[in-house]
Amino acid sequence: MKTVGQILSIERNSKNFSIRDIEIELKIPKNIIIDLENDNIKNNSDIIFNIGHLRSYSNLLELDTNAIIEKFKDELSF
């Protein structure tokens, strides 16, 4: 079963978007996009902001955003 980060990365590549494209379109810092795709987000004080970034990213990729957010929370034990 794929992780949220793997799903994001695969879908981004299938749509021929670069990380830079996502950064410009969503105004999300490159390091956060990379952390999301590498499943390197921790359940800390920034988690609400990161969930917001994940929601925007998922919407842009036309994924099932609610399912992605729930899977993300499960992976983090949020």
What report would you give on this structure?
It is a single chain. The chain is built from five helices and no strands. It has helices spanning 4-14, 19-26, 30-37, 47-60, 65-76. The radius of gyration is 11 Å and the shape is globular.
Number of strands: 0
Helix content estimate: 55-70%
Structural class: mainly alpha
Net shape: globular
Radius of gyration, in Å, reads: 11 Å
Unreliable parts? none
- The count of helical stretches stands at 5
The chain-level mean pLDDT equals 96
Please give the alpha-carbon distance between the first and last residues: 19 Å
Order of helices and strands: HHHHH
Biggest β-sheet description:
none
Write a concise synopsis of the structure shown.
With 78 residues, this protein is mostly helical. The chain has 5 helices and no strands.
What key attributes describe this structure?
globular; single chain; mainly alpha; 78 residues; 5 helices
